[in-house]
Design goal:
The chain has four helices and six strands. The chain is α/β, with parallel strands linked by helices. A six-stranded mixed β-sheet has the order 3-2-4-1-5-6, sandwiched between helices. The longest helix has 13 residues, at 52-64. The radius of gyration is 14 Å and the shape is globular. It starts with a strand and ends with a strand. This is Phosphohistidine phosphatase. It holds the Pfam family His_Phos_1. It comes from Pseudomonas rhizosphaerae.
């Protein structure tokens, strides 16, 4: 399995709620830069948080990946989601090539859990950072982190 984890691009600092924060123009460019790294990857799914900035990031990524499937919004990719629950959802999907678009602290904790088997070493992920993981199955401690790209 190949798993890509993309943190949303830079977002405005204020909105009526955290979920409504939109990307800045810098964040849009960051998202496009990171998504371009996926241009030749055969994606089975693009899964995104329902928060506006993640939706916008996922839509921009989809726009530069013409053969990618439509973005699917899932409620289990919000900033404070449980990384163990995310792994459970990924297992149920049973897909080979997945792009997740989400937020900190979830993305850093998820990477730590998948690679190290614990939450003690969260991966530092800047806005629009893209992590590439590979493994037989998305289980705690059983995936390898191949690269983290920062825009």
């Amino acid at each position: 399995m190949k798993l890509w984890v993309l943190r949303h691009g830079e977002a405005v600092s204020h909105a009526r709620s955290d979920a409504e924060r939109a990307l800045t123009s810098v964040g849009q460019q960051q998202a496009l830069t990171s998504a371009a790294r996926l241009h030749d990857q055969p994606l089975d799914a693009i899964l995104a948080s329902p928060y506006v900035r993640a939706q916008q990031t996922a839509a921009l990524a989809h726009g530069v990946l013409p053969s990618a499937p439509a973005v699917r919004t899932v409620p289990w990719l919000t900033p404070d989601s449980d990384p163990l629950a995310v792994i459970g959802h990924l297992e149920k999907l049973g897909l080979d090539n997945v792009l997740l678009v989400s937020h900190q602290p979830l993305v850093g904790n998820l990477l730590s859990l998948l690679v190290h088997g614990n939450l003690r070493q969260p991966e530092p992920m800047q806005t629009a950072s893209l992590a590439e993981l590979q493994g037989e199955w998305p289980l705690a401690g059983l995936m390898s982190l191949h690269a983290v790209h920062h825009p």
